[in-house]
Design a protein that fits this description.
By secondary structure, the chain is mainly beta. The chain has one helix at about 50-60; strands at about 10-20, 30-35, 40-45, 65, 70-75. Strand 4 and strand 5 form a beta hairpin. The longest helix is centred in the middle third of the chain and has 11 residues, at about 50-60.
Length: about 80
């Protein structure tokens, strides 16, 4: 098993950034994901609205995973029947 063969990773840190564009153009928001205490990093481009929603989901979540292949964030786990 190699680091690249692991497809779902635990999110350990995240950082939102805003990147200025040419004068008169809207800036670009990015979200950097750090998984497994730095084993892997991923940078996603997100809209301002998505950044707001993601922050609201991430703040209270203690357990967040990232599916590398599908580029999907998964928030928490819920036992069957709950």
């Amino acid at each position: 098993m190699t680091d690249d063969s692991i497809r779902v990773r635990q999110l350990s840190h995240y950082q939102f950034s805003w990147i200025a564009q040419e004068a008169g153009e809207a800036g670009v928001f990015t979200m950097q994901l750090v998984t497994d205490q730095g084993v892997r990093e991923e940078v996603l481009t997100v809209s301002a609205e998505d950044a707001d929603v993601l922050q609201n989901l991430l703040r209270p979540s203690e357990d967040v995973h990232f599916d590398v292949g599908r580029r999907v964030l998964m928030f928490g786990t819920t036992p069957v029947g709950k």
